[in-house]
Design a protein that fits this description.
Layout lengths: L1 E10 L2 E7 L4 E5 L6 H13 L19 E8 L5 E9 L3 E6 L2 E2 L12 E4 L4 H5 L2 H15 L1 H25 L7 H42 L5 E6 L10 H14 L1 H7 L10 E6 L2 E2 H4 L2 H23 L4 E5 L7 H11 L7 E5 L3 H4 L10 E6 L2 E2 L7
Parallel strand pairs: 3-13, 3-14, 8-12, 12-13
Antiparallel strand pairs: 1-2, 1-4, 4-5, 5-6, 6-7, 9-10, 10-11, 14-15
Amino acid sequence: MHIRSLRLVSFRAHADSTLRFAPKVNLLYGPNGAGKTNVLEAIHYLCLGKSFLASKDSYALRKGAPFFEIEGRFESDNGRDVTMRLAYVPAEGKRIFVNRAPLERLSQVIGIVPLVVFSPEDQALTAGGPDERRRFMDNILSQARPVYLNDLLSYRRTLKQRNELLVQGRYGSSVRGQDGVLESWTEELVVLGSRLIAARFRFVAEFDAFLRRAFECLQGDIEEPTLAYHTVVTPDAGLDLSDIERAYRAQLGRVARRERELGRTLAGPHLDELVFKLNGMEVRRFASQGQHRTFGMAMKLAQYFYLRDRLEENPIFLLDDVFGNLDPKRTRLLLELLQTDAVGQSIITAAHAEPLLSVLSIENGVNHAAEILSGRVATPGGLG
């Protein structure tokens, strides 16, 4: 899959911009605040229905504008054309249209155009709390398996309802039959949560090979990366769904009194952890800054390989201002990789073009470079 053109209307720094993209590497360069990252954010909106930077859609609205609109034209690897449009009006929210047809739910857009993003914020993936790593798993599995996304959204709704009941009980507002209602929500939580746990166990087992391949691409066989998924059941206890359900019910039983005291659910996939290790040592606690950067980059590259393998479609690879933190060797390795058949289309942002253009071949017609200034394409003959 690759994006051929993108139009931004009243989006961040862009009043009305149109960009066209080459099929391989696209470099957007220019000073901070010029609108480079806005382009990547807009593509993320189209593919996943939300920003990868801001928690509120209103933050992406150009100052004084009544709405913003994004439209992208994509082409799949087998030549199928897909047009996607997202419109946001503050009082009405977001609407997404695929080939002019409105989607009933925003979540339906996920998986149509597979996408991988690597940005400075991803340092939290290796150095931050477990919620970042859970989000990483959920992002990949939601794009690769629609049934996982459905289970995840249902689990979150069930968790919210169960927590509300626990809060009511905590503050003495229980009503007749509440225990039976809580038991019903608990059983729903167990069924949905166990399916998520089973899917995550399978993912971690499969993802290991893609992570090792990514490390080899970036640095050879110098270090050995491994993953471990920590949840209510251990892998050696068996991964049969009924075994997971029994273990989950038992754990909820053990924490039931504490849950009533605190008013929240204390066991389940919303609290699980994905542990990263290098040569047997936990990355979050013991890795150097360079190892953190390499592991984070390898995880994103492995995500790319995994999605391409599962969907039989090249994802679009967005790299936002990541080369400034890389040494020249890894910069060259990554840029050379992006120009091979191992990766399809990529879109890169950088403050300065010169260090990258020494490796990036833009004369071949499959790669492009363009300068972004004040929310517009400033390079004649470039992307625009």
